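hi! just following up on the protien thing from before. the input was this:
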Amino acid sequence: MSPWSGKKHYKEFLEDMISNINIKEDEIEVTQYFMWTMLFVGEKINHVKNLFMLLMGRQQRLTIVTILFSAIAQILKSWVIVYWLILFLNI
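and the predicted 3d structure came back as:
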């Protein structure tokens, strides 16, 4: 099992991200957030499969963040298009 699998971990990750967004009236403020560091350690790997699993576990958060930000960007882009259509076409 991956070290980052399970409901607890993804909920904790999303809570960390959301807790750093402050919405005040018409402003959105995003505070600084230290995501993580890439840590490379010397470790004896006795099988190629173990090396692959180690590498996959290390890049899992980066992949999830990339997918999450891409989805958010698509949603925001849709909202902007709808906003401009409503504004200019008076729908």
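Residues 7-89 form one domain.
The beta strands are 21-24, 27-30.
cheers
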